[in-house]
Amino acid sequence: MCSTILLRRPGHDWPLILAGNRDEMVDRPWKPPARHWPDRPDVVAGLDESAGGTWLGLNDAGVVAAILNRQGTLGPQSGKRSRGELVLESLDHADAAEAAKALTHLDPGAYRPFNLVVADNRDAFWLAHRGDGRIRVQPVPPGLSMLTAHDLNDPASSPRQRFYTPLFAQAAAPEPEKGDWKAWEELLGSRIWEGGLSVGPRGAMCVVTDVGFETVSSALIALPSAERLGTPPIFRFAPGRPDRTPFQDVPL
User: Which domains does the chain have, with CATH numbers?
Assistant: First the structure.
C-alpha cells in the first residue's frame, strides 16, 4: 500500500472514508479481499500469497487497517517478519484505539520500517516505525489526510502528497448512500505528476513503470456512524490498475 487518503468527519453519517492504492511488483501473487483466514473469520482483506498477510483489511467490528512501506524499504528482508502481519494483528481488536495501543508494544526490530493506519468510525491513528527502534503513534486529525512512504501530511517530503492532497480536498467527497464514488475513483486512477524527471511516474497516484513495479490494486472503504445501527460498511475494490480496472463492491 503506497498511498492512503483518509477523510475524517466526526458527527457525519459516514465519519470515515478511506482510499488507498497498492504499489507493488506485478509478479508478487495476491488475491482480492475476502475472508481468507479460517482463524480470523471476521476479517475481510486482500491476501498476499507470498507472506500470508495483507496490505488492507476490515473486520466485522468496523476497524480498518492499512500498511505502507517507508521510503527505500520495498519488499521482504531476511530475518524480518512480514509487515502484512500487522494489519491482521490490528484487526484482532474491536476498536482502533485498542489496536493502536497494542501495536505500540511490538518489537520494532522484528520488522522493516512501516507506516500503519488503524481507524474506526470514532478514531484514527498513524503508527510510524522509522527504523530508529521505536514505534510512534499519532492521532489522525479530522479532515483530509494523506499518507505515503513518508510521514503523514508531509508534502515537503512527498511529491505525491504535495500534488494530490489539494486535489482530493477539492474533489467531491464520496457519497456512499448514493453510490457516488466517481471523483475519488478518478483521482485514484490518475497518472499525472509534477516535478518532471526528478520525480517521475512514481509521483503519480496510479504508478506505471517499465521495471515491473506499478499500482496493482485500489480500494475505497466507508464506515457508517454508530448511530446508523444495521448499516454495514462499504468496501469497494479495483483488482488491477485503477486507471483501467472498474471498482466493484466487496461482499461483506
Answer: 3-249 (3.60.60.10)
